[in-house]
Amino acid sequence: MTGRWTGWVLGIGSILAAAAFAWPLFVSAVPADARAAVPIVAFALVPALIVALAITLDGEMYTAKTVALLGVLSAVGAAVRIAGTGVGGVEAVFVLLILAGRAYGARFGFLLGLLTIAVSSLLWGGFGPWTPFQMFACGWVGAGAGLLPQGRGTPTRIRARLEIAALAAYGIVASYVFGLVMNLWFWPFAVGSGTGISYAADAEPGQNLASFALYSLVTSTLTWDTVRAITTTIGIILVGPAVLAALRRAKMSPRLDRRSTVPPVEARRQSDGDLARL
Questions:
Q1: pLDDT mean over 133-155
Q2: pLDDT by residue (tens digit) across 50-103?
Q3: Residue ranges making up the domain that contains 257
Q4: N or C: less crowded end of the chain, CB within 10 Å?
Q5: How far is CA 10 from the centre of its chain?
Q6: For residue 179, what are the CA distances in angstroms to 126, 221, 265?
């Protein structure tokens, strides 16, 4: 029941955050005297949602092993992200987020995305108005990997190959979607008015959507996002099987510490069930 409740919290929080990302497409529906406040509300909403969701989702991540694993992977992700800074479009950290989200589930992947961006921004000095949006977007990348179908019933060797192929395909989609959502929140400020890719507060949503699509295509989709998709795919194919095996050997169970009287075989079965629900 708790897992279902936190799943609803993550879903509702993500819907609210998506609205904050997409404010340029809906501001025309707001009364003219309130339009100037819409970006401010959106920028305030995302950090508040991050804090609320992190506290809520962390309620089930309460064993020392889980916290340690989350901390170690966040530090690794931050180091990988900092090492790739300045290389246009290369986001090797996506490989870690996708594989960890797949191994440990959507909630863990979401928290890992949040913490990776927070730690790397703190160490690198890259905090700015974009940081909360990056945190949420990377959290979605990790969570999405944990929501992919499990493919039970398929022979183990075939399932492993299909899993890597599915994760590579997901990495491509996530790379492009990440670029789109990160473009959306700052697009109104990125270019001046009066061009074919400019944002117009009083324009119809369809017109702004067309302008945004053209803006994204020429500024990131064909360049940064494509490089990100390629590097993520190559990384998952090359290191995915080994990293997934290593992560799964370090399986965690939030409730395992309270099962000292459960027989070993039954404890393993219950632990596997807990991990699947993550």
A1: 85
A2: 877 777 666 656 567 778 888 899 999 999 888 876 566 577 899 999 999 999
A3: 2-277
A4: N
A5: 12
A6: 18, 7, 45
- 225 near 173, Cβ under 8 Å? no
φ, ψ for residue 125 (rounded to 5)? 75, 30
What is the phi/psi pair of residue 132, to 5°?
-60, -35
Query: CA-CA-CA-CA torsion for 238, 243, 244, 249, nearest 10 degrees?
Result: 150
Number of domains in the chain: 1
Q: 214: which 2 tokens? A: 């053209």
The CA-based angle 92-116-134, given to 5 degrees, is: 85
Residue 20 is inside which H or E element, if any? Answer: helix 2-21
Local structure of 187: helix, strand or coil:
helix
Q: What's the Cα-to-Cα distance from 54 to each of 103, 180, 201, rounded to whole Å?
A: 19, 24, 33
